[in-house]
Amino acid sequence: MSPYSRRAFLAAAGIGLLAGCAGGDPADRADRAASTTPSAPLPSVTPPAGAARPLERSAPVALRIPAIGVDTPVVRLGLQADGSVEVPAITADDRAGWYRYSPTPGQTGPAVLLGHVTVGKYGDGVFRRLDRLRPGDGITARLENGTTAEFAVTAVRTVGKKEFPTTDVYGNVARPELRLITCGGPLTGDEYRDNVIVFAVLTPAGER
User: Fold this and answer.
1) pTM
2) Which own/partner pairs from 24-27 qualify as long-range (CB within 8 Å, at least 24 positions apart)?
3) Residue ranges per structural domain of the chain
């Protein structure tokens, strides 16, 4: 496991995932998924045949998902003072955020990006339609070094926050992958019940 994915996994295992889910006033807190602790160390893995060549480390600055009309700048996210995962600010100009303790898009391992499903009085969040993605849909991350990383969706999962799959999201993988996360399911008060998670893999022609 790379030092970036290990740090991301340990943080997530200890505190759970904080995903952008503001359903009420912008002052309301974001919702937190329940924490999950791994029962054993993650094994090392071998890249599958035909896997795309990993890219150099370079932070994402923009994200495009044509199938659902997403074209957003990307901000950097870390950890808050209480150890919870930071989320993008709730503003009218909503943006996705890259969790900087995960790999950058195109590096070996799971690059993790978070976004809001709604942003209070401002309406829809940048990941409002994330659950409409289907396997094969394309995702493009533009990187700080001027290149782009091209991904294809492999799965879309909606899971209850109490069953958040920490290992599946943050755990060791042997190829460059992407995770996009927001909230979903029914809204009760200012809290969504579920998380929507998109899994994607770097395509063989992933760097341009």
Assistant:
1) 0.81
2) 24/120, 24/189, 24/190, 25/120, 25/121, 25/190, 26/90, 26/91, 26/119, 26/120, 26/121, 26/122
3) 3-37+56-207
Nearest C-alpha neighbor of 36 from the set 160, 158, 163 = 163
Q: Is the pLDDT of residue 20 over 90?
A: no
Pairing of strands 96-99, 70-77: parallel
pLDDT score, position 89: 87
- Confirm or reject CATH 3.40.30.10 for domain 3-37+56-207, answering yes or no: no
Tens of pLDDT along 77-96? 998 888 778 888 888 889 99
CA 183 from centre of chain: 11
